[in-house]
Amino acid sequence: MAILEVHELKKKFDEDEVLKGISFNMEKGQTLSILGSSGSGKTTLLRCLNLLETPDEGTITVNGDLLFFANVKQLKEDELRKKRLHFGMVFQQFNLFPQYTALENVILAPKLVKKDMESAEILERGKVLLNKMGLSDRMDNYPHQLSGGQQQRVAIARALALNPDILCFDEPTSALDPELTGEVLKVIKELSEQNTTMIIVTHEIAFAREVSDEIIFMDQGVIAEQGPPSQVIDNPNNERTKQFLSNYLK
Amino acid sequence: MFTSVTISLLEGFLGTLKLFSLTLLFSLPLGLIISFGSMSKNAVVRVPIRFIIWVVRGTPLMLQLLIFFYGPGIFFGVNLWGAGDSGRFTAALVAFVFNYACYFSEIFRGGIQSIPKGQYEAAAVLGLTKSQTFFKIVLLQVVKRIVPPISNEVITLVKDTSLARVIAFYEIIWEGERFIKSAGIIWPLFYTGVFYLIFSGLLTLLFGYIEKRLDYFK
Asked: What is the ipTM score, two decimals?
């Protein structure tokens, strides 16, 4: 059974139709990358999944649980919060909380949200996650004392701490200096190898080809092409995909 | 002579301190409430509150003191404030709280609105409630940003308390001026400045300390 089913998702900002009916499924343990030029709607799609934006039409189903159904417009704040926890989110700008250390950033939400977990257990898990990110010696540093790549790895640990069904990345390396992107991509690749279910919005074509099981190419609010990397990146059928890729792979 | 003048002025300064500290005590929380109102999505709340802020910030505090003190009697024929010194104090306090709450509300609004949207979004995807987001994430960042402008207002308030003289509220300038009539000397009035200086100096140190304590994050 598909872990995520998105059906006919539509979103307008004023008169600007950013998503014009997006449908796709994804399987548990898969890595899905979403490519496309700026303004193609890929970030909006990700934000709709997280319910940071409210879609106008369509449905989102996670693990057979209907998460969002556009006809039920007003979600109660409480329900909204629970539904969001299916997804973890890593932002382009990291968005770490500046007044907390790396470790505190990771354990803050579990402490507030997971009422059934012991705080010693949460602390232990936070340390394990940061270790996994290669940040064992940085746990007590504040975000401003960390490099961009380190901050983004803390953000990944923070998102993983809540055990989301699906981890989303919104252009995770776009705000980083080129020499720092490698360390973040390496971590994402490791997660992919451990079969973490992930959706990655990215401009790193080569990286997407390497880690993805599935690629979606978006153009002007629709899915122009979808398939395994060997198809979408190496043998694209769609004219827009070809054009886009030729700009990147020069 | 110097010692007895100092003691008298200290007595007057107690009046100043009383008005100062009670104004802060009430206007800071009231300012926070007003700032929420001025950011409300509901125009029925937002527009009147912004109008009131405009009026309060756009007219002299001295005039507001006079209106608060005499207004109820003149316009409604009620003696709202009660008789004597305590009535004068209450009227002065209400006018000061109202005035400073409006200024503080604008500082709070600026501070709250300066927090990047990403902080709210990160809190939202982590499943935090609105109040958890405000108290655990936003508040301390706001406090850090508003310490300098708040310290400015607080130091202004120390000196603004002297305006309450206009409705015959007893404070240090009043006490200093008394010596002109009673002893024919003017230096006690000038000497009051030292009290203001020392007190605002202490406040400067205090706010400097708070700023330093919040230096651990950026």
From this structure: 0.92
